[in-house]
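Reading group handout, session on sequence-to-structure problems. Before we discuss, look at one worked example. The prompt was deliberately terse, the way you'd type it at a terminal:

> structure Sulfotransferase family protein

The input record follows.
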Amino acid sequence: MKITWLASYPRSGNTYLRTILFNCFGIKTASIYPKDLGGNKILENFVGHIEHNQNKTITFQKGSIPIIKTHKLNQDDNRTIYIIRDGRAASVSLWNFYGKKIPIKDIILGNHRFGTWKDHLISWNPLKRPNTLLIKYEDILCNFEYVLNSIETFLEIKVLSKKLPSRDTVATFDGRWVRSKTDWKEKISSEELNLFNKINYPVLKEFGYE
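And the output record:
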C-alpha cells in the first residue's frame, strides 16, 4: 500500500492530528524525521508514534494504513492529508520551537530549513491537488466533529472514539512539540506582521486568513 502523507508547514497541528488518528481511529503513524518527538516516550505514547528501525525503515501495524508525517514540499501524487494553520500563528510557534534563537523575521522570510509558509502552501496546493484532504487546525479546535467525519470519509475508516487527551495534559509531559495555548498576536511586532502579510497576503486570503 502506498504511503499516505500527513503534510504541513511546521507548527501547524501535525502532531495534534497524529494524536487524533491514534486516539480516535486507532491508527499509529510515523514521521520522515527520526526521533521526531525528541525521544520522549510519554509523548510518543500519546501520539501513537512509530519510530524508525535501526536500518532506517518503518514497520507499520499489520493491516494499518501507512501514514507518514512530512514538512517537505510536495514530491509525488500520493494520497495526502494536509493540515493548514494561520501562518502568523505557525511562524510564532516555530520561533518558540527553535528556542527563539532564530529571529521571527528570519522565520517569516524562510531563512531556515523549511522555507516560507506561502511556498509550502503553493507547493502542496491542497485546494486543487487530487486525492487530498485539507484540514484547518482551527477546525480541529472549534469543529472537531466535522474533522472526524472528514477523516472518516477520506480514509474510509470508522471513528472508534471521540476522546482525546487535553492539549495541556500532553504539554505537561513535553512543552516543545506540544505547548500550552498562547496568543501569537502578543509575540509578533507590527513590523514583523506587516512583513508576513506582504509576503503571504494572497495565500492568506485564498485560505480565509485575512
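Points for discussion. First: DSSP finds nine helices and six strands in the chain. Second: The first helix runs from residue 14 to 25.
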